[in-house]
Design brief:
about 325 residues; alpha/beta; seven-stranded mixed sheet; six-stranded mixed sheet; 15 strands
């Protein structure tokens, strides 16, 4: 089951897509009032910025995520450079809307305060601000110029534009190798994660009696393919299958074994946010990634709680 295509915006317009529905009813969470502006037909003109937002609804976009958006851009006409999502975090949580990059690194996202949406979009559309600027200045919660603290490992910017294949569909977690200059280190990493089974998975045959609940083992499908050499976090969300017939087959998390993994103690892995702020990385020791996956799966913790804050000791390293 696929998402409907997005309509082609008129010149000068930006699509504001509702991606949160309850019984077919769009949930905007008060966003349109918080944005401000005036109505001109079906368009919302935001203050002095002159930005023209076109709110659109279709319950076929329910649970649409930022990484899904690039594949839904309509053919023909001038491709938009940005789309704004009012997703479940907006509809239920009151968070800022998600801006989705469609130009530099399609599929990555950053949240902005509703009352600054017009200002920021105007600067993006005029070229006074780039998406890289937004990403480099977002806090650990994915909010542009937010007050949650700066990430210790900021999302990479100036990512080279290149094509990658779609990542394989798999229920749960993917462990993707993106650095291929250390075969011995790669083997050691897989050994530390318990080795792979015949299906190419780590952690597939766990003995419940031997599980350390404080360092829960990672269960993941291993992707060892040179086509993903150099893949960065911001490029990941657009490579994950948009929707599956069976929700149990959805990829819930992507973990990158990158150059840092083989160069630093604790074999740190880069976990990529697919949902809250697509493309945002969380870098943490490989021994902690299984616990992160488990806590996210049961909604016990949020992604941002695993994003280390600059100049602050991460909670998982505290005595």
């Amino acid at each position: 089951m696929s998402f409907p295509k997005l309509p082609q915006p008129e010149p000068g317009e930006v699509l504001l897509v509702c991606a949160c529905y309850e019984d077919g009813t769009a949930l905007w969470g008060g966003l349109q009032d918080e944005i401000g502006g005036r109505r001109e037909g079906d368009v919302l003109v935001i203050g002095d910025s002159g930005v023209r937002l076109r709110p659109i609804e279709d319950d076929g976009w329910d649970s649409l995520y930022g990484g899904n958006v690039p594949a839904l851009v309509a053919d023909g006409g001038q491709a938009p450079s940005v789309v704004v999502l009012a997703d479940v975090s907006v509809g239920y949580g009151g968070d800022g809307p998600l801006l989705v990059d469609l130009a530099a690194v399609p599929g990555r996202g950053v949240r902005v305060a509703p009352d600054r949406l017009g200002e920021i979009l105007a600067d993006l559309l005029s070229g006074a601000l780039t998406f890289d600027h937004l990403v480099s200045d977002m806090d650990v919660c994915g909010m542009y110029q937010g007050d949650g603290g700066q990430p210790a490992f900021p999302a990479p910017t100036a990512t080279p534009r290149r094509e990658f294949p779609t990542l394989p569909s798999s229920a749960g977690v993917l462990l993707v190798r993106t650095f291929f200059d250390d075969e011995e280190g790669w083997g050691a990493l897989l050994d530390e994660l318990g080795g792979t089974d015949d299906d190419g998975r780590v952690g597939a045959d766990l003995d419940p009696d031997e599980i350390d609940v404080d360092h829960y083992p990672l269960t993941a499908l291993v992707v060892d393919d040179r086509d993903f050499d150099g893949l960065r976090s911001g490029q990941v969300p657009a490579l994950v299958s948009a929707r599956e017939e069976d929700i149990d087959e959805l990829t819930t998390m992507v973990v990158l074994a990158d150059a840092r993994t083989f160069a630093e103690p604790d074999r740190p892995l880069t976990v990529v946010d697919l949902y809250d702020t697509p493309g945002q990385p969380a870098v943490l020791p490989c021994r902690m990634v299984g616990s992160m996956a488990c806590n996210l799966e049961i909604s016990n913790m949020d992604f941002f709680e695993f994003v280390a804050v600059a100049d602050t000791q991460p909670w998982w390293e505290e005595d």
